Amino acid sequence: MEQVLFYFKAYWKAVFEIGLLTAIVYYFLLLFRGTRGAAVFTGFVIALLVVTGLTHIFELDVMNWILSRVLAFLAIAVLVIFQPELRRALAQIGSQQFFSSSQQRHELIDVLVETARALSQKHFGGLMAIEREIGFRGMQETGVPIEAKATTELLTTIFFPNTPLHDGGVVIQGDRIVAAACVFPLTQQQGLSTELGMRHRAAIGLSEETDAVVIAVSEETGKISVTHRGRLLRDLDADSLREFLSRTLAPPARPSDWIVDGARRFISSLITSRSPRPTEEIPPAESPVDETESHPEARS
User: Fold this and answer.
1) What average pLDDT does this structure show over 253-262?
2) Is there a domain that residue 44 lies in?
3) For residues 60-79, average pLDDT
4) Which CATH number is 184's domain given?
5) Is the pLDDT of residue 32 over 60?
6) 71 vs 187, 250, 252, CA distance in Å?
7) Which of 19, 105, 175, 202 is the most exposed place for a label (fewest CB within 10 A)?
């Protein structure tokens, strides 16, 4: 027992630092997983390790000196190269969840699946973006505000051909439709199938910049597709779509999520308590209306 305490007192800092660095590296890689920057980051690390290994094996003093000087500027290079991924990671850390309960999430999933099924059967084009942790208010402002509860009937009506709101995408927060006819950014990926139209490219583009789940229904073929983190899954049926949405929008809670959510709520409460509350404006009192003015026949 005394030896255990001795080793604990002697090496607890080293164990703590190793665990902390492991967690940081793990979550850093987790944020890059499934993004366009993942391949760039992998190639960058491999190239750096290969060059460093070769310079040490063959004792290339000049290359070692250059690398030692260049490494000082790698932090700036990482900020420039991986700017979209880092921005999304910071947004994930400081954002709030829009879903309030598990029941609400599953009700929304039912609405989305039934809507996609109805659009597919009628060959109506559809584009639905479910906002998660990273908001995209700028894209919402390109559309028409709705602020209504998400239902299959309302979504199907919005995407009915030749209606004013059927072009563009619908943004859903929680269980509410906040905007329709929104313009989403197009993906810049190369080598996509020529069968993909503007609707699918917009779905991929939005999922690359945010963590939103975007459902696209083809107007020509009626096929259902879904995108998340820049990845497109095509030709889904209702059961496959439900399984994907349940896995993405309603995953089982993890112990680490409780800690992160608790920290978010604490910081949010501090910000909310210190922010000034807007003063309510009292509407001016209406002046009495003369009955004889509103009804000319009363004067006669």
Assistant:
1) 54
2) yes
3) 81
4) 3.40.1700.10
5) yes
6) 32, 42, 41
7) 19
Answer yes or no: do 129 and 155 share one domain: yes
| Residues 107, 239 within the same domain | yes
Among 53-62, 184-193, 237-246, name the most confident range. 237-246
217 burial (CB, 10 Å; 0-12 / 13-18 / 19+) is buried
| Residue with the two structure tokens 């902390």 | 20
Among the candidates 72, 94, 116, a domain finishes at 94
Q: In the listed set 46, 61, 94, which residue is the last one of a domain according to the structure?
A: 94
Give the per-residue pLDDT at 107: 93
- Nearest to 33, CA basis, from 278, 228, 179: 228
Q: Quote the pLDDT of residue 37.
A: 66
Among 63, 69, 107, residue whose Cα is nearest residue 249: 107
Q: Please tell me whether residues 146 and 228 are part of one structural domain.
A: yes
> How is residue 277 written in tokens?
């509350």
What tokens appear for 73 in the block?
């500027």
User: For residue 72, what is the DSSP state?
Assistant: G
pLDDT at 294: 40
Question: Does the global pTM surpass 0.70?
Answer: no
User: Domains in the chain: how many in total?
Assistant: 2
Q: At 213, is the secondary structure helix, strand, or coil?
A: strand
Q: What does residue 35 show for φ and ψ, rounded to 5 degrees? A: -105, 170
The 3-state DSSP class for residue 228 equals strand
